[in-house]
Write a structure and sequence with these properties.
Layout lengths: L20 E5 L4 E4 L5 E5 L13 E5 L2 E2 L2 E6 L4 E6 L8 E6 L13 E7 L4 E7 L5 E9 L5 E9 L12 E7 L5
Parallel strand pairs: 2-9
Antiparallel strand pairs: 1-3, 3-7, 4-5, 4-8, 6-7, 8-9, 10-11, 11-12, 12-13
This protein binds calcium ion (CA) (2 copies).
Length: 180
């Protein structure tokens, strides 16, 4: 039996350093994040892919666990959370990573970060003719609490003959005070 004098696990021996989060996208406390986002987490070293799952990497809105798939790419050392559908507008989401391991079994310290999606600032309601042509439309604007602050009704395409351009004929416009 040959005693191994250091060819194995050189320079300090076994890996006892847990992995850490290097960066996230969205960044912690990011705002105005698109509701179509995937979430990506870059880690400091290769992970035990078995330890990366919905059980250890969660996306929550409040206490609600958002249906999503969690994958890990070893080449880029990136965990990706892919929500099953669009996220909600103007909502805070929190990601918790708890129980993820490196290849030596060192467990990453529990890590959380949060971001907020953008509000739905503007929507359009379009009327069409029986032939499928635009006949008129409304635009609605909302405040951060989702209260409508303004609507505009457009009744014509204007001189350029093209709908949804700046010269459309504004037929009516109303503002709403949502301060009380
Ligand atoms: Ca390690
Ligand atoms: Ca126009």
């Amino acid at each position: 039996m040959v005693h191994n004098k250091g060819g194995f696990k050189k320079k300090g021996g076994a890996d006892t350093t847990p992995p850490t989060v290097v960066s996230t996208n969205p960044a912690n406390n990011a705002t105005k994040v698109t509701v179509q986002s995937n979430i990506q987490i870059v880690v400091s070293e290769g992970l035990d892919s078995v330890s990366v799952s919905r059980a250890t990497v969660s996306l929550r809105a409040g206490s609600y666990k958002v249906p999503s798939t969690v994958t890990y790419d070893d080449v880029s050392r990136t965990i990706t959370i892919n929500p099953a559908g669009a996220l909600w507008y103007d909502y805070k989401y929190t990601i918790t990573i708890s129980g993820v391991k490196d290849l030596a079994g060192n467990i990453m310290a529990q890590t959380t970060f949060s971001f907020t999606t953008y509000k739905n600032p503007f929507t359009r309601y379009i009327y069409y003719t029986a032939l499928g042509l635009v006949s008129s439309y409304y635009t609605y604007t909302y405040d951060a609490n989702g209260n409508m602050t303004r609507y505009v009704y457009y009744s014509g395409a204007g001189a350029d003959g093209v709908w949804f351009t700046v010269d459309d004929v504004k037929y009516a416009e109303s503002y709403y005070d949502t301060s009380f």
